[in-house]
Design goal:
Blueprint lengths: L1 H22 E4 L3 E7 L2 E6 L2 E4 L5 E7 L3 E11 L5 E12 L2 H6 L4 H17 L4 H6 L1 H16 L4 E12 L2 H43 L1 H16 L13 H50 L1
Helix pairs in contact: 3-5, 6-7
Length: about 290
């Protein structure tokens, strides 16, 4: 009888241990457990340790970390009837584990299919130029639409990124040609503007030369001086250019007059020096006579 009691006690102890092992649950910080008791939602537990009723309770483990969906390339026809291939990356996480289990059968698959459909719908309403230049706005718009549709599922779409836009080869060549034409157009506009500014400056200079003709002649002489610095060149001026010859003759006359004036000054200085020397000699002679 005692042996039977011991066996019964051992069996009961084993059963209790099995029940406790099934009843005690531990989940990590980034996990939550949705509990169904007899088919009805009992609540969400975690993180840490908690207890359930074995057999009666059914648990579903949910991960709250950010998930990534790589949306496969979608063939999209833009508003201006251009066919492109676009792929994107969707970042989302579960914020309401209960709704993620109750409201949708497979939230991961549902979010992925919704992202593909939304991507085609949104990009089909814009033109190719906006698709290539306004990616930040498109990313934000896609994120808002997906977040609004997945909110009843307890899903939060944190970001959407258009990763690549694949254009047909002929379209790429056409865009490159268009960009080259645009750059050539800008260069011609800049060149024309430079010519306009130069013409205005030359007009002002012409007015100044008209008011002061000597300035034009000085500029001409300066140009000849600049050309003459190249010793390998021979400067030939027109024989009929009376103005240049006149100025050259005047310059020669001025130089000759200056040389003559300098010579006269030196001669006067010598005569003055001789007179002073003669006067000093006379004074010395007169003083010696008085002394005798």
């Amino acid at each position: 009888m005692a042996e039977f009691d011991n066996i019964a006690l051992l069996i009961a102890l084993v059963v209790v241990l099995i029940i406790l092992s099934q009843a005690i649950k531990i989940v990590r910080e980034y996990e939550r457990v949705v509990i169904f008791r007899l088919g009805r939602l009992s609540g969400v537990r975690g993180p840490g340790i908690f207890f359930i009723i074995p057999i009666i309770d059914r648990v579903i483990l949910m991960d709250l970390r950010v998930f990534t969906i790589d949306v496969a390339k979608q063939v999209v026809i833009t508003r201006d009837n251009v066919s492109v291939e676009v792929d994107a990356v969707i970042y989302y996480r579960v914020i309401d584990p209960a709704n993620a289990v109750i409201q949708v059968q497979n939230y991961n698959l549902a979010t992925s299919l919704l992202a593909q459909t939304t991507l085609r719908d949104v990009l089909g309403q814009i033109e190719l130029d906006d698709l290539l230049s306004k990616r930040e706005e498109l990313n934000k718009r896609l994120q808002e639409i997906l977040d609004r549709h997945t909110d009843p599922w307890g899903i939060k779409v944190t970001a959407v990124t258009l990763r690549d836009v694949a254009l047909p080869e002929n379209l790429r060549r056409a865009i490159a040609k268009q960009a080259e034409s645009e750059r050539e157009k800008r260069s011609r506009i800049i060149l024309a503007d430079g010519e306009f500014q130069a013409s205005k400056t030359m007009t002002d200079a012409a007015r100044l030369y008209e008011e002061v003709p000597a300035a034009l002649k000085l500029r001409e002489l300066q140009t000849l001086v600049d050309i003459a610095r190249e010793k390998t060149l021979i400067v030939v001026t027109p024989s009929g250019d009376v103005g240049t010859g006149t100025i050259a003759a005047m310059t020669t006359a001025f130089q000759k007059e200056r040389i003559e004036r300098e010579a006269e000054g030196r001669e006067a200085a010598r005569i003055s020096a001789r007179r002073e020397a003669t006067m000093r000699e006379a004074a010395t002679t007169e003083a010696s006579r008085k002394g005798q």
